[in-house]
Amino acid sequence: xxxxxxxxxxxxxxxxxxxxxxxxxxxxxxxxxxxxxxxxxxxxxxxxxxxxxxxxxxxxxxxxxxxxxxxxxxxxxxxxxxxxxxxxxxxxxxxxxxxxxxxxxxxxxxxxxxxxxxxxxxxxxxxxxxxxxxxxxxxxxxxxxxxxxxxxxxxxxxxxxxxxxxxxxxxxxxxxxxxxxxxxxxxxxxxxxxxxxxxxxxxxxxxxxxxxxxxxxxxxxxxxxxxxxxxxxxxxxxxxxxxxxxxxxxxxxxxxxxxxxxxxxxxxxxxxxxxxxxxxxxxxxxxxxxxxxxxxxxxxxxxxxxxxxxxxxxxxxxxxxxxxxxxxxxxxxxxxxxxxxxxxxxxxxxxxxxxxxxxxxxxxxxxxxxxxxxxxxxxxxxxxxxxxxxxxxxxxxxxxxxxxxxxxxxxxxxxxxxxxxxxxxxxxxxxxxxxxxxxxxxxxx
Length: 445
Prior knowledge:
- Belongs to the PI3/PI4-kinase family. Type II PI4K subfamily.
- By secondary structure, this protein is α+β, with helices and mostly antiparallel strands.
- The protein has a domain at 2-38 and 57-154 and 164-286 and 404-438.
- It contains 11 helices and 14 strands.
- The strands form 5 sheets. Strands 1-2-3-5-4 form a 5-stranded antiparallel β-sheet, covered by helices on one side. A 3-stranded antiparallel β-sheet has the order 6-7-8. The chain has a two-stranded antiparallel sheet with strand order 9-10.
- Helix 6 (228-246) packs across helix 11 (409-437) and helix 8 packs antiparallel against helix 9.
- The relative contact order is 0.11.
């Protein structure tokens, strides 16, 4: 198209970067091109919300994320338009060098979601976009990147039983999905009444068939530039989604558990973040106990050797006048194992304290607020939250998130196992409270 004279036309966009349309000779748009070699600029009024987002997804990697959303939308379930990565060169980009860009099929539409009331949207469309956003931890699903078009309802869906056809939704702009840290998502659909409707049978079957590990392999093969920390977010969130749906939760419950709590003074962690913290702590406790058992075995052997040596020296002592001293020494021998264990404990705590002192923080912040004092055996130890694989990464004032980038493959596997073990109880709690929260929701569309 470019070789035949088609001009990339800049379009007004509420996204983070510049967007161009390619049009045919009749002036009809057929593709959308987004260069990704430039730093994205948040639109006016969205600077606060995107302060975290800019640290969650790198500017040069928004294109691969656009493609990732298409690759993971199996069988077009959520309606992501076909998307690919290209190299493109044109004077309109103000550079002679070819630029990396994402190219996506243009979708003709009647509105975007911000121009209509949500009651006009089909239940299945809301569910299908929500399922995609949960899997990808989309931190930028606002009304402007949900296109609306008139279409007949899908056969067998809720909407096929309605008297009039509902509007169909098309998700676009996925450059801020799959963040590198467990960031706070933004789900426009979270409080739409459709999200409180239970999933249909076909939706439950689709979710049950998802394989997060296979999806991760697809991304590693097709998009090698996508970082492993982002791929692990996909695995975590897909696992969370699958178990939540199996437990009977609706889309609104799932989205709410993934979203951070806000109070008048500060931002609190989401249920998902708390579960990740608990899983990491459980993993650390297991590792500490295993290490302690090994150390205790070594300490016990050492204490036996020391006791035998002291006992031997006393038995070989020819001085009969030191009986009282010998008795005192024998009494001390009984406490040697405890002494050695205490010394070993102190040594381990000292090692941990040195590790904490040398630990690097990506945000460069060493304030005392990020650390806590823990007393173990009368010894005060200053520890950070992350002793193993977690990092709190600063992404703006008051915005800190968990990263899995420092986990080894073995640690990541152990963490996922611990995480899955915590989910059933959390979902039971949610089911008991979620109904009360939704009592005032109208399900009439």
